[in-house]
Every structure is written in C-alpha cells, then in structure tokens.
Amino acid sequence: MLTTGAPPMFAIVNAVAALLALVIAAVLYRKPSRKAELAALCLAPVALAASIAIGPDIDGVHRWVAIGPLRLHAAALFGPSFLVAFQRRADWFGTAVAVVMAGLVTLQPDMGAALALACALGIALVFEFRWDRLMAFAVSAIAFGVTAIRPDRLEPVSFVENVLQNIWHQGSVLALLIPLALLAAIAAPVLMSAGRRSEGAALAGWFLGLAAASLLGPFPTPLIGYGAAPILGYGIALGLLGRARPNPAPSDNGCTQTGTASPYARSLQIERAGRLNDNRDQCSRNLAGNPCHAGSGGMH
C-alpha cells in the first residue's frame, strides 16, 4: 500500500486492523457461540440499511458506517461473516436475509459488493446445492446486473482502488508477490474448512468478487489496499469458520437429520438416563417395605 502513495498513518490503521482481526478470530474460534452466528446473519442487513439511511455519503453513494473518526465499508465489514452464518442455516430465513442484502447493495449502490455476493453464493452452490440458495444467487446476480449498468461516480484513489494495477505498472518484484499473497488469502478459507467446503467457498468467493470488481472499475482492492473494514471482516469470518459446524436440531428421538446425535441431544439423553437410574434406585429402596406390583407396572 505504501508503494502506491498511501500516507504512513493509513498503513498503521491497516496494521492495527490486522492485529485486531487476529484477536477477534482467536476469540470466536476458542469460544464458539450460536448467538454470534445469528448476530452475524442479522447485523449485515442492519448495517447496510444504516449506511443508506444515516451513513456518510460521497456524491450520493452510501456505503459506509461511521464509528468515531473512522468510516468503515459496511458490506466489507459484515458481509464475510454473514456468508459463513448463511451457509450454516438450513431454512428460508437465511435466504430471505440474503435477498434483502442483494436489494440493499443495489440501493447503495455498490457493484463491488453485488459482484462479491453473487460470486460467493454461486461458488458455494457448487459445493452444496439447495434450491433456496439458488434463488438467493439468482437475486444477487440480478443485483450485480443492475449495479453494473449504473455509472459509479466516485473517483479512484491510488492506494484504495486500482492497487493491483498500480503495483503491476511499477514493475518490481512486488508485482508478483502481492498478487500471490492476495490469492493465498482468498484461497485460505477453502483450505481450512475441511468438511465444510460450502462455507469456505462462500468466504473465498466474496473476496474473489471484491478483487475482480477492483479490476473492473474504481472499487477498493480488498486486504492489500487501504481500508480496515475488509481486514476486520476477514478476521471475524475466519473465527466463525474455524469453529465446528453446528449440528442440525435434534428430532423427537434425539438424533440429527443425519442419524447422529447432536451434543445437545446427547446431553438430554445423559440427563434422562440419570433420572431413570435415580427412579430405579428409589424403587429398589422401597422394595423392602412396599414391593412393586408385577402386574400393574406401578407401585402400591
């Protein structure tokens, strides 16, 4: 980023964001929570709606939320974790939220986020196909088409947008190393999500879409350009991705849809077994003074 003319203070902001992202990822990984996933699913559309309604704007474009002196790109901050949480749901609620997300990035408007959302949902479908997710992908593809035909009025900044092109024109060894580092960061979620490929693929697809948008127009280059939001969003999503996939809700017999008892169901089974043993012990203690009636199955 410094090679493209960014002030040193901006590099410090990115470095602090990277350290904070590592801390957040470690906390989420060590202390998994279903509430965190639900929050990730719901905060994304709320943040995008807030950026449109009350967020700062530049030439009529509303993509940011203000936190103190910082203006953070709402979709880049909350979009990655939303996708991980979305891929873990097996109901239409997540699909409805994804459709709302597509509508909101159209209203901002933000072709980069629309392309990222479409790439994420489309690539994830390859690993785990569901009809409701196909509908979400179709709506996101429409959102990308609508935003693509609308001219973007923002002027590019050399250390925010067009970072890859500017580095390439410099002709140094960084022209090879930095794009390779970006590709490694994009591919990492897929490699670290063994058994949960659709989640890692969605996260990788999001950043692949952002990178592609930065090559197609004046949109921020993720992770390597100036901007704390993509870095923080990446760290939060990695923390959610690193934890085990939540088991499906247990059925009446205490087993998941795949036939394996979930941790919640197993705890219920253990508790019920303990109560049954307590009842048996009570019956045994009563046998000496008040025998159980063999025919009625009850105690008299």
What does this structure look like?
By secondary structure, the protein is mainly alpha-helical. Helix content is 65%, strand content 3%. It has a two-stranded antiparallel ribbon with strand order 1-2. A hairpin with a 2-residue loop joins strand 1 (64-67) and strand 2. The chain is globular. The termini are far apart. Mean pLDDT is 82; it is low at 246-272 and 291-300.
Give the secondary structure arrangement, pairings included.
Layout: H1 8-30, H2 34-53, E1 64-67, E2 70-73, H3 74-87, H4 92-107, H5 111-127, H6 131-148, H7 163-170, H8 174-191, H9 197-216, H10 228-242, H11 263-287
Antiparallel strand pairs: 1-2
Helix pairs in contact: 1-10, 2-3, 2-4, 3-4, 3-5, 3-9, 3-10, 4-6, 5-6, 5-9, 7-8, 8-9
Brief write-up:
It is built from eleven helices and two strands.
Keywords:
2 strands; 65% helix; mainly alpha; 300 residues; disordered C terminus
Mean pLDDT: 82
Structural class: mainly alpha
- What is the 3D shape? globular
Spans with pLDDT under 50 lasting ≥5 residues? Answer: 246-272, 291-300
Q: Percent helix among the residues?
A: 55-70%
DSSP, total strands: 2
Instruction: List the helices and strands in order.
Output: HHEEHHHHHHHHH
Q: Total number of helical segments?
A: 11
Q: State the end-to-end distance.
A: 83 Å
What portion of residues belong to β-strands? under 5%
- What's the main sheet like? 2 strands, antiparallel
Q: What is the alpha-carbon Rg in Å?
A: 25 Å
Sequence of strands across the biggest β-sheet: 1-2
